[in-house]
Structure formats: structure tokens, C-alpha cells
Amino acid sequence: MAFTMHSHSGQFCPGHAKDQLEDIILHAIKVGYKTIGLTEHMPRTELSDLYPEELDPSPEETLASLAPRHEAYLAEARRLQQKYASQIHVLIGFEGEWIRPAYGPLIRSLAADPAVDYFVGSIHHARGVPIDLDAPTYADAVRACGGTERALFAAYFDEQFAMLEAVRPRVVGHFDLVRLFSSAPGRSLRRGKGGEEVWARVVRNLECVRRYGGWLECNTSALRKGLAEPYPQREIAEEWVRMGGRFTFADDSHGIAQVATNYRRGLDYLEGLGVKEVWTLERRRAPAAEEGGGGGDEDEAELVERSVSIDEFRASMNLE
């Protein structure tokens, strides 16, 4: 049963992704997905948090459009969830933006919407500066954190820890995204100058996720962006396996062309770690609704965890 728990569309992330949400779902069905988690980016509330492509024609207009766009996304996601229920299991979520602690209450409020099944907890900034936009902005983040990459990594994992404690996301997105524009993205985080301090933060964060029962996504977008391993890199993934932590799986697609990209490589990676299964969510009719023979209202459903073996996952894919 192939799936992704992290995806985006150009319809609701214009300038950042491509394609209409319905077309992406149709393509997901074609490649063999049985479940797709929709996780458009949550709205931001500060002008300083807009990306360059969002500044024209008017930053103020862009900012004002984000909350209504999120509501439109939820409405369309519910429509598509019902329309394609016989072909694919559509989960509705969003990707959290923890730029600073002030976003915590907004994340919790958005997650409380009855339409939302889960959210992805992500960090895309350090000290308020984007870390995955481009190399020059990454350099700005390094300077904002004290001038060294180790200092940036430490700040990133500290901010991630604050997010984990505050909102406890079911899915932790691209755990080590901070390495994307690093001068040595494949370097060990536990060795070298300052490594002990960074690694202690990594372990602390993993232990936090393990305690509250969250999942790390094996995110194959790192491979299409040129990294040698998915997120999280091997030493982090090995530590997570040692702790008994669970993985989910995600392409982090930003349009049709990226759906299921590098999935075979991602599955091989997990198998090399000794991982036998990945986890997703399934919406089931609540017992009371089943006994009553109701009309299938999604609000009467309960969300349950489901394990999918790597073998079953591979068998259901229809990739050329």
C-alpha cells in the first residue's frame, strides 16, 4: 500500500509548487498510491515571513490572502476526499511553520479543525531566516546564528525542540533539513569540532518524539535535491531505529512531476537500516456510526494508525 504523508500543490502553494490539487490526486492514483496526505503550508501572519515570490504585487495583499486560501484548501480537500473515496484514501493535513514560538497557538488552532487529520511539524528557519531557500539565504542564516554552520545546526535543533514540545506533531518533517545547503551536507553530526553539542541536541529531539509517539518521515525529496541520503541521514536514522522509533514515508512532492520521486531508493535505504514497515493513518467508521448504519459522515470516523510492510509498499507501486 504505497502512500505519501507530505505533499503540496500549485493551486494552494502558488509560486512554490505546481499543478491543481485534483490532478495531483489523479496522478497519485495512477502510480499506485492507496493513501495521500495533503499537507499544504499553513498561513503565516507576519510580513517578514513572506518569501521573495510572495512580495509582488503587494506583500500586504499576499499576507491577507493566506488565511482565506487555507480555508479554500480545506474545502477543496474535503470535496476531493469524498469524490475519490473509492479509489484512494485522502488524508487532510497541513505543514506547520514554526518560525518563532508565537506560531504555536496558530498551529494548535488549525490542527483543531474537524477537517484536519494531522499535521507535519517542520522547521524551515533559524533565527527567523530561511535555511532551505537558496545558498545566499542559508549564508544569512549562518551569520544570524553566530557565523558557523555548527552554530546554525545547534540553533536549528533547539528551535525544532521547542516546536516538538509545544505542538507534538504526529509527523516530524524532514528532521535534518538544515543540512541541505551545508558546505558538507553528508558530514557526520556527531563528530568533528562542536559535534558533541549538536549530536546531543539531535538525540534529545529524537527522544522527545519517541516519548509522545510521533513519527519521523523518511523524506525522499532530499534525493531529488542532490543529497546522497533521504531525510534523516543515516546516523540519525540509525539512532531512531535503535530507540524503536517509527518511520512514515513521504515524497514531499510539489507537483505531479515529483510524486513518488526516488521512492525505490528511499525504500532501499530503509531496508538497509533494518526497517520492515512504515506507518500511515487510516480513517475508519466509528463503531457507533457502523451500528447505526448512518450516512457515512466523515466527522463520525476515527483515525487509526496502520503499519505497511516495505514489501507490501513496493508491490502496490506502479512506477515505470
TrEMBL record:
Its EC number is 3.1.3.15. The keyword Amino-acid biosynthesis applies. One of its GO terms (biological process) is L-histidine biosynthetic process. Residues 5-221 form the PHP domain. SUPFAM superfamilies: PHP domain-like. The keyword Isomerase does not apply. CDD domains: PHP_HisPPase_Hisj_like. One of its GO terms (cellular component) is cytoplasm. Pathway: Amino-acid biosynthesis; L-histidine biosynthesis; L-histidine from 5-phospho-alpha-D-ribose 1-diphosphate: step 8/9. Keywords: Amino-acid biosynthesis, Histidine biosynthesis, Hydrolase. It catalyses: L-histidinol phosphate + H2O = L-histidinol + phosphate. It holds the Pfam family PHP. One of its GO terms (molecular function) is histidinol-phosphatase activity. Belongs to the PHP hydrolase family. HisK subfamily. This is Histidinol-phosphatase. It comes from Thermothelomyces thermophilus (strain ATCC 42464 / BCRC 31852 / DSM 1799) (Sporotrichum thermophile).
